[in-house]
Amino acid sequence: MLIAVAVFVAAIGAIKVRQIRGAGAQTAAFQPPPEAVTTIVAAQKEWPATVNAIGTVTAVQGVTVSADLPGIVEKIGFESGRTVRAGEMLVRLDTSQEQAQLAAAEAARDLARLSRERLKGLRESGVISQADYDRAAADLQQGEAKVGEIRATIARKTIRAPFAGLLGIRKVNLGQYLAAGDPVVPLQSLRPVYVNFAVPQQELGHVRAGAAVRVSLEGVAYVEPAGRITAVDSIVDPATRNVQVQATCANADGRLRPGMFVQTGVVLGTASPVVALPASAISYASYGDSVFIVEDVKGPNGQTYRGVRQQVVKLGGARGDQVAVLSGVRPGQEVVTSGVFKLRNGAAIRVNNAIQPSNSATPRPEDS
pTM above the 0.70 mark? Predict the structure, then answer.
């Protein structure tokens, strides 16, 4: 009986060993289904060297027009949001009191002129002294100065645009009392405008007055070709180690408004060869950025299949949807552009380029 049991156990053991070995072989030979991805053939491009920064638009001339003297608003000569010429009347304050004072001053001046003319003849006849004549002439000058002073006060109660530009929303109403310094309306000149931005101190040697500057709005492909650096600050901010730079843009279409945040790029004039790939092709990681290169991979069973190899890359700057790859990818290599998050080194793939991710240096989003 013991011999029979031993034979039975040995037979069962042999069968199970054969089954386990067969399952292990099947597991080793198992190949997961290929992942669907899109790819692109890497090509070399010449990208001009640029220094990118975030800038702020400011007006070359921008003020809030205010009342110079107190008074009641008698007339409003502008509409909110329209352009005005230099010297155009914006608001006129009530000047009835000053007009009465002007009439009195003009009458006193005329009387002083007549008195001087009479005393002139008497002085020539020797009837009066030179001192009396000089006093009459001084009274005439004082009268003319008083008239000029009152006229200047009347002119200051007519508020005019100090320069041509675009008005904001008015802050006064008809009949409102304005104290000296009360705001009337913002006025900004938009052609041209300044764009102020900061660059790191290590880039200061590449940034010079006269260099071209690209200006783009967030979500809008907009380039201002007339942008030029006009000033570089003489000091470095000790807190950030950045240098303030000011560029002037023609802003012919008036799209740039004071206070806007814009993206700026200083063109350094030299171009360097890079491999430009869509940003979706980059797998970002703390230990290094990488891409997946498509090539023939040899499996454990010795058969060759279409797979990917993970390649660490060094990245440069970005332009629109594209990222510059400085090293790690050669022109002509096929690179995965979408679906990289589900790939691993040696994974099998199936290429489907019916729909490609965006790959434009100057994208135009539909919701912009």
Answer: no
